[in-house]
């Protein structure tokens, strides 16, 4: 089994690490776009073009399926990616975990990028899966960029700013950007008592259900804006990156 993961940057580490936990033998191809990031401020057409380029770079390495490990790309590019690769290669997108959070809690905050916060996509998601819960949309300017740079001071400042906008006593926080899952411990500390809901585990499980393939070697390949490369040094600032750096993987 060989799975490609697509994102603008290191946000894909969370889903990749989740796949590795479930299937240590799965071969992984991490295809990101450091030359074009961040994707959030880009137009839908531009995001789609860049996501397709990353997906093609992964597909060229013989993957059995693709994970779009990016909320922005899933919003804008998922239909085009499925048109381009399915049914030959299953394509699994990433959706913020609003449904499970609202099913279990009456007060929910969604932490997301400023571009996603208040968007028609997120509002539709709340309308469809909010389950009558009180849902607060919390913009997190600078947090994804700070995580991408592993800038501790900037991460702490962005988390503190978002926590200040989060209602006191909220019982669940949905992590609406894959980068945020890499600093889930800091977010949990800033919103004590709230249960965090990320997407990585559910995305990994869905991918393993849909993507065929027998035992692999637990290898890792990295493609940065179409160029073969090693795992970026910044990835090693996070436990997910450290776990992925062990290749071949061990069960």
What's the helical proportion of residues?
A: 40-55%
| DSSP helical segment count | 10
Derived from helix and strand composition plus strand pairing, the structural class reads alpha/beta
- Number of domain modules: 2
GO biological process, one term: peptidoglycan biosynthetic process
Pfam families: Asp_Glu_race
Keywords: Isomerase
GO molecular function: glutamate racemase activity
Structure commentary:
By secondary structure, this protein is α/β, with parallel strands linked by helices. α1 (12-22) crosses α9 (200-210), α2 (44-59) packs across α3 (71-85) and α6 (143-149) runs antiparallel to α7. The chain has two domains: 2-94 and 201-244, Rossmann fold (3-Layer(aba) Sandwich); 98-198, Rossmann fold (3-Layer(aba) Sandwich), CATH 3.40.50.1860. The protein has a six-stranded mixed sheet with strand order 4-3-1-2-9-10, sandwiched between helices. Strands 6-5-7-8 form a four-stranded parallel sheet, with helices on both faces. It has ten helices and ten strands. The longest helix is centred in the N-terminal third of the chain and has 16 residues, at 44-59. GO terms for molecular function: glutamate racemase activity. Keywords: Isomerase. This is Glutamate racemase. Pfam families: Asp_Glu_race.
